[in-house]
Amino acid sequence: MGRSVVQYGGLVTVLSTNKDFYFPGEPVQMFLNTVNVSPQPVRLTFPTAQRYDFVAAGTFGEVWRWSAGRFFAQRDSQVPLFMPRVVETITLRPGENLFYREVWNQEDNGGRRVPPGVYVVSGWNTFSGSEYLPRPYVYITIGRPWYSSPF
Hints:
This protein is mostly beta strands. It has strands spanning 3-8, 11-17, 21-22, 28-36, 42-46, 52-58, 61-65, 88-92, 97-104, 117-125, 137-142. It has one domain (3-142): Intracellular proteinase inhibitor BsuPI (Immunoglobulin-like), CATH 2.60.40.
């Protein structure tokens, strides 16, 4: 199981995958858990309805992004007056967490199967300011099934 831990302020974020090695086409399960480890409440403001994202990158850069092709309600200044607006602040009390799970089917953003190789999977919460914080990441390997010669 791949696992990476990043701490910033009173928050600890753990990214993990269910395995380190995957056969081609095998689903990659990813888990993102952010916990308030401080003795004080922590406020997180989300400028859109999106709460998290996951990315897989190969040798030549990003191949898959969970949020690619998805639409999220936007904050006040980015939408016309007649559309719903979303800005949400979540308060995590000490010991509370945000947990998300997604599955990558080993296809790129265009729907093509990615080749065997080493990939970096990262995940993060998308609250305001998170783009400036370190992101946890794990390496996974997508390999070919072992071939056993009959000779």
